[in-house]
Amino acid sequence: MAATVNLSSTPSNPISKLPSFSLNSPQKTSFSLFPNSSSFPCKPFSHSLKSQFITTSSKNPISDLFPPNKSGPEGDILSSFSDDDDKPREECGVVGIFGDPEASRLCYLALHALQHRGQEGAGIVAVNNNVLQTVTGVGLVSEVFNESKLDQLPGEMAIGHVRYSTAGSSMLKNVQPFVAGYRFGSVGVAHNGNLVNYRALRAMLEDNGSIFNTSSDTEVVLHLIAISKARPFLLRIVDACEKLEGAYSMVFVTGDKLVAVRDPYGFRPLVMGRRSNGAVVFASETCALDLIEATYEREVYPGEVLVVDKKDGVQSLCLMPHPEPKQCIFEHIYFALPNSLVFGRSVYESRRVFGEILATEAPVDCDVVIAVPDSGVVAALGYAAKAGVPFQQGLIRSHYVGRTFIEPSQKIRDFGVKLKLSPVRAVLEGKRVVVVDDSIVRGTTSSKIVRLIKEAGAKEIHMRIASPPIIGSCYYGVDTPSAEELISNRMSVEEIRKFIGCDSLAFLPFDSLKKMLSTDSPKFCYACFSGKYPVMPREVKVKGVGDSMDDGLNTPLASIDGHWIKGPPNFDLEKEIDPLYQESKI
User: Fold this and answer.
1) Is 107 labeled as catalytic in the residue annotation?
2) Which of 118, 328, 356, 465 could form a disulfide with 382 if both were Cys (CB 3.0 to 4.6 A apart)?
3) Domain of 358?
4) Which of left, alpha, beta for 293 (phi over 0: left; psi -120 to 50: alpha)?
5) Pick the catalytic residue: 92, 366, 474, 528?
6) Helix/strand/coil for 111
7) pLDDT, tens digit, for every residue of 550-559?
8) Is 376 inside any structural domain?
9) 242 and 358 in a common domain
């Protein structure tokens, strides 16, 4: 039986032994095997790949508490600015490594490569002699780990996680991977995604005696594994995952196995690679494989469970195959690094083509094309090349600014944006400028950027956005505002243009995006653009104060991290989350 050793600053509380009970699985359509076996060759409980191993996550209610025009609790001296928050936020990234004597150090490097997916917490669980050892901490990967911490994580198997907290302060207890002990040993898990039936599952578990130590939906998975009667451990994971709804790309570790799981829709990415010594690597993006010199082999297919151990190598089985995956399109628009392959496509090429489409469908006479760094750069390059106009660095981004900065007593307008972005007057002055950005969420940052460029002397400013208008909130692992806070859900393109203050504004046409994706188009989720949700959430997503509201013990369930509350009686959730409800049904 595997033991657990926790090396972080607060102890890990194992899940108690619980009486078993039956959870009703959510109603599902009968699933069939993927019709296109060349794209998704996931077959139930049969496919086995042997390999040799060397021993070796209306108005914003939070605005009532902290109105945007008022100072924070620290007054005017300490400014906690949120200009950079006017983007959707990926909530985490995961890594798993099996069969390498330096598994924890490779995991550490891979998490560095995934740092863009989460900056508020990081952790690693390593397995040595059937003992799970944990180091977690709040902050960047480089702040959480050092040589001595990594020396405490020996072994040939490890999983890691980087986390983005949606609001409020991050707390160590919510930093993954989570480790729990139960009657058959110990298990660690790292999760990227969001469970839309989390509250219902947690309530059922608590009614039957489960005690929760965190405010994360990931802990539900550990409880479901602990109470499952299925054998062996692999089937306990399958049994637990059959009760989950929503997005999850997860890696598990036990005393002798590494397991990777992806939800049937494949919302969030998860890839598999292999190092030259035979070690198997799982990661959220291929950029993590590149850094540790692992060769990309393939994606973990939607609905697939991959199990790695020394006895059988890599085994694959189907969890719940679904005929039509719904992969997150925003991975290609914003989240993933340009050097990654995501869902089998080059992120760089996708963004370059987005820019070309904008140049073709929304041309304008201009002298220079610039990008809002860093996420708008590749699309701007595509726009400039197609338009035959020079691309230049008109905005310089500072990479050394934290979340909080001391502001002088004399207020500086657009302080947060000015700290992060500096206009280059020599590029902008007297010019007709096309500014390419990846998306507009609330519109607040875009208006400040336009103002910065005007102050630098630009003659005209034409905004080109390399995504369709965002009209719906995400429920599948991305932190986005509520639908009523999204500017494209409240205003027309012309109204947004006036609000931002630019001379012209154009978004990537939705139909052109789907046409560019060609035969892959049906495999993507466009809920944020269309309001049509592949998995209808059971709870309403609202913005809350976040982790700072919850100590995990004595606050209401409605305040947990994840921001889900139950709707009132006779509440029509579908109409609430889809402002274009009637149109989407046509």
Assistant:
1) no
2) 356
3) 346-398+410-529
4) left
5) 92
6) helix
7) 222 233 333 3
8) yes
9) no
